[in-house]
Structure formats: C-alpha cells, structure tokens
Amino acid sequence: MLTTLAVENYRSLRDLVLPLSRLTVVTGVNGTGKSNLYRALRLLADAGRNGAVAALAREGGLPSTLWAGPEAVGKRATVQGTVRTKPVGLRLGFGGDEFGYALDFGLPVPNKDPDRPTLFNLDPEFKRESLWCGPVLRQTAVLADRAGPSVRVRDESGAWAAASRIGLTDSMLSELGDPRACPELMIVRERLRSWRFYDQFRTDAGAPARQDRIGTRTTVLGHDGADLAAALRTIQEFGDDEALAEAVSDAFPRSRVEVVGADGLLRLRFHQHGLLRPLGAAELSDGTLRYLLWVAALLSPRPPELLVLNEPETSLHPDLLPALAALIVKASRRAQVVVVSHARPLVVALSEDATTLELEKSFGATAVSGQGRLDRPSWHWPKR
C-alpha cells in the first residue's frame, strides 16, 4: 500500500507531500489544485508504461506544466518579477510499505552546435530516478538508481552491478527488462501499470457505454466504460453478484440489472420497478448510466493496486451519493482508493472510513489545510 505521495513543481503543486491511507479523500473548493493532483498521479503511473514524456507533451510540454510562481514563498513573497536560480525540475514520487520510487524531470542541456541544430531543446529528460525499499529514501535501501543515462542496480549480494545506459527520455522501469538484474523494478513497473484512473465517464447519446458490443470476459472496466455490459456480466458470473445486486437496489429500490446475449453481442437490460419492460443502455438517464459504470468499476473481480476516482459525483443526484459512498468503502477493502471530490455530501459520507485531505491555496501554491512542515510525512528527494 502507498503511504506517501510527493509532488514538486507540477502546476500549482509547488511542494506537496501527502499521507495516504487505504481510503483517501481529497477535497477543496474549485481552483485549489485537486485536478492537478489527479493529473500528477496519472503522470506518475505513465512512467511505468514509458509514457510520461508523451503525457507531458500532451499537456503542452514541460515548461507549461511547471510551477509558475517564485522558487521561495514567504510571507512577503510576490509572484511577479522573480528570477530562477536553480535548475528546472519536476519531481514525482511515492513511498509505500514495500517500495518507494521517485523521478526528476528536467530540460536537456542546450545544443549549441551550429552544425547539428535541433528543435527538441524543450523535450523533458529523466535527470534522476530512484527505487528503494520502504517508504523513505535511504542510501542503504536504494535498489536501482539512475543519473542521466546511467543506471545502476544492486546484485544479489547487495553490491552495485556495472552501470548500463538508457535513453534520456526513457524510464528505467520500462527499459531495464531483465527481471534477474533487479526483480523489484519489474514488480513496481507492473504495479504502476495496474493503477486504474476513472474520470467523468461519457454518458451522452454517443457514449461508448450505450452501445451493444461483442462480449469478452472483462475483469477490469475500461477507462471509457465501453465494456460496461461485459464487466457487469463478469461480476455476476465470477465476482460478487450479491454486492452488485445490493448496489443497484440501494440506489434504485426494487430494480435489477440483467445482461443478455444476442447475435454475439452483450446487451444491458435495466429492470426498474413500475416499468412494463426493461430499459436498454441507450434509454438510461445520464445519472443511472453513470452510477452503473461506477458499480462496474468498483466491484471489479480483479482489483488494481490503486484505484483513483476523479469527481465521481458528476451527474449523480444527491440521493445516490450514500449508495456510491458505500460502494467506494467496499472497494477500499480490496484495493487502495483515492477519491478526488468537491461534493460535500459524498466527502461526509466517506469521512468515517477515510483520511480526508482538504486542499487550499497559499500564495498560488496548493497546500493541505492545517498541515505544518512537521505534520508532513517524512520524504527525501534523490539529489541530482
């Protein structure tokens, strides 16, 4: 389980170190940095797929994602007119019961050779990466360490093996593929790849979840919800069918979900009390469809290492939030869950079972309300 999340210089997250529990709820008013925290977690997960550099490019490149305020923030700090004196760096990391990991992105050394001009001087590069045992970085606990293109790993005796070289835009998690060299790298990589992120499912008329599709056994709902019918049927056949029936009846009394096959396609049928026929996915209201998507995601027969939900209350009537909260709590017994939400009724419903972190802005930077420097979890970044 992850116990600490650390982010530095990513958008409004100038210097943030968060404690994580089995169920963590992140809340705050609009503009305090909740979405930035969600994006930072996704970016960290992308490192396990060697997709972090491409993800930064989709956000406009490293310069557009960096903290835009001053390097030092004090009581009299001003945001305008500051000059950077330190190297540009975007840092992401986590600590857990078993392993910790951190990465440090920076800009490449400018190419001043007139004979070899380049247009890629803003491509982010891995300046440092480190993997260690336990929640806090200690030099004696480091298992793999990367400085620029050079990567070192410890062998079975605990001694450092000969350094190898990888590309500056490649993560050591994906490029060191030999599990015999450092099996822990492969373990952490696969865990990062198992993290699941769900962010505002589409429920419009053309939404993937409203279409009948060829059904295959689906133990994890896709990010877009296109395999909703298959995921629900998989839960009914191989997962917790009783929990699914209970989740539906809690939200819609005396209603049930059925998945039928026709011509190789799986079709969702929603039996609602008072109606003479079941409703198909195309007929469901946005709120009903979205709730069923959350049911499929949270009751997955193969829970991920980490499940991150961004504003799951969107399009749901307040009366459905207690049922959604019960679903989230049940999911947290099988997987670690982080919920990002500004819906106070949902936050209150989860508060008894969750660690609640309320974000606020201080001189433009995101901070945890009430968290002093001594209240933060212990954390150390690998030095360049």
From TrEMBL:
GO molecular function terms attached to this record: ATP binding; ATP hydrolysis activity
Pfam families membership: AAA_21 (PF13304)
Keyword check for Cytoplasm: no
Domain ATPase AAA-type core span(s) in chain numbering: 23-348
Keyword annotations: DNA damage, SOS response
SUPFAM superfamilies: P-loop containing nucleoside triphosphate hydrolases (SSF52540)
GO annotation, biological process: DNA synthesis involved in DNA repair; double-strand break repair; SOS response
Name of the protein described by the UniProt record: Putative ATPase
Upper taxonomic lineage: Bacteria, Bacillati, Actinomycetota, Actinomycetes, Pseudonocardiales
